[in-house]
């Protein structure tokens, strides 16, 4: 009996809304590829089968799809509207009656159910499988969020998980600092930086910005809290003061139209490039001279480690866990989120080549800073510990 128990794989269910390009889906797909398959039997459950990363689902992973993605619907706009409305109704029913969802879509019982981000908290917490251990992951800096009711709702939901994983030390600490809430059943595990995958991708094709001017690249979802509207204002100030350069932003999102309009109003359409989402953004970053992340809010952004491993000099706002990734003045420059500091940092890169060379030299140690195998080991240990607690609860 002990032998059978020892050889039993731990059944783990990951819940995700969809697979649009973003940090959380990329982290999940990486874990599904690299956590030990001799210990775990993984299933990925998608509410919507849509997003740029659908093609990257590992072939050996069990997949549960709740509803079709928009790409799989009719090309007839009238029929598509009907299909979308019916899909929304069904998802609302499943949200209200999770037992029905699991009865129709989830044929197995799982030892562990994982919410990789706050968007999936309710999906996992409302699971009718009462015996499974519920693990939550939180990557967000609540310090930026002015909606206290929303923050408090997430904080209370995190208390209901059997165990919480935070994406950075700062992510967990700021909840204590601002709301005096601690999570004894938790740990900090950084996201994996895939050095061995990034560098070959950067060489898959050559990109040329067709300019003799220095280029700042940036990458992120286009949302107001990502700070690209502020970066554009600073860009205009630098140009007006005679510091010629270009900026290339890789990413799509809800702010695209606003940024296009702002770009027109500031008359920087030729120098502030909006390149939209790219399935392989790394050649665009490689072709640039510097990288800047102007965000108001982050936890532990993968892009910082990725760009550092490409030996690009980085300017980043000092938010979330970024100071746990960048040593200021050594392998990057940290600034506060305001126009003046952003202006001065960019000006320094444009006018002090010796500073840029110093930062590039500092990035040579990046592979030692981001050890992916240690992160996989930490996550494996958490899952195994939670499984043992499940067994103990069943015996008691």
User: How would you write the strand order of the largest sheet?
Assistant: 3-2-1-4-5-6-7
CATH topology call of the largest domain:
Rossmann fold
CATH superfamily of the largest domain: Glycogen Phosphorylase B
CATH class membership of the largest domain? Alpha Beta
Number of helices: 16
Distance N terminus to C terminus? 18 Å
Instruction: Specify the structural class.
Output: alpha/beta
Shape, principal axes of CA atoms: globular
SSE topology:
Blueprint: H1 2-7, E1 10-16, H2 23-34, E2 40-49, E3 62-68, H3 77-96, H4 98-105, E4 112-115, H5 121-125, E5 133-138, H6 148-159, E6 163-166, H7 169-179, E7 186-188, H8 195-202, E8 215-219, H9 228-240, E9 246-250, H10 256-266, E10 272-276, H11 282-286, E11 290-293, H12 302-309, E12 314-317, E13 333-335, H13 339-351, H14 353-362, H15 366-369, H16 372-395
Parallel strand pairs: 1-2, 1-4, 2-3, 4-5, 5-6, 6-7, 8-9, 8-11, 9-10, 11-12, 12-13
């Amino acid at each position: 009996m002990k032998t059978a128990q020892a050889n039993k794989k731990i059944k783990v269910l990951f819940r995700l809304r969809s697979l649009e390009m973003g940090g959380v889906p990329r982290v999940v797909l990486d874990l599904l590829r690299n956590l030990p398959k001799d210990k775990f039997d993984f299933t990925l459950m998608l509410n919507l089968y849509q997003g740029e990363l659908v093609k990257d689902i590992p072939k050996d992973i069990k997949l549960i799809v709740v509803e079709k993605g928009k790409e799989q619907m009719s090309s007839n706009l009238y029929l598509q509207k009907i299909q979308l409305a019916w899909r929304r109704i069904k998802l609302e029913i499943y949200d209200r009656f999770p037992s029905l969802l699991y009865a129709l879509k989830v044929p197995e019982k799982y030892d562990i159910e994982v919410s990789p981000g706050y968007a999936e908290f309710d999906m996992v917490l409302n699971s009718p499988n009462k015996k499974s251990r519920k693990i939550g992951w939180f990557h967000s800096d609540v310090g930026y969020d002015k909606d206290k009711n929303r923050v408090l709702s997430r904080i209370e939901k995190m208390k209901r998980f059997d165990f919480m994983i935070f994406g950075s030390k700062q992510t967990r600490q700021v909840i204590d600092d601002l709301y005096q809430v601690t999570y004894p059943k938790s740990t900090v595990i950084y996201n994996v930086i895939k050095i061995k995958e990034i560098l070959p991708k950067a060489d898959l094709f050559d990109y040329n910005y067709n300019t003799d001017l220095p280029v700042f690249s940036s990458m992120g979802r286009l949302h107001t809290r990502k700070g690209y509207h502020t970066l554009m204002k600073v860009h205009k100030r630098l140009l007006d003061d005679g510091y010629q350069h270009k900026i290339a932003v890789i990413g799509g999102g809800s702010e695209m139209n606003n940024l296009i309009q702002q770009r027109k109003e500031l008359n920087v359409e030729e120098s502030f490039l909006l390149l939209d989402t790219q399935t392989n953004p790394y050649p665009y970053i490689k072709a640039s001279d510097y990288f800047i992340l102007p965000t108001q809010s982050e936890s532990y952004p993968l892009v910082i480690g990725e760009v550092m491993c490409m030996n690009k000099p980085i300017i980043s706002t000092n938010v979330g866990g970024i100071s746990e990734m960048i040593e200021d003045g050594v392998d990057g420059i940290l600034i506060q989120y305001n126009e003046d500091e952003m202006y001065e940092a960019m000006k320094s890169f444009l006018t002090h080549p010796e500073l840029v060379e110093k930062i590039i030299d500092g990035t040579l140690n990046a592979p030692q800073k981001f050890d992916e195998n240690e992160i996989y080991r930490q996550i494996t240990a958490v899952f195994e510990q939670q499984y043992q607690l499940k067994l103990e609860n069943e015996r008691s």
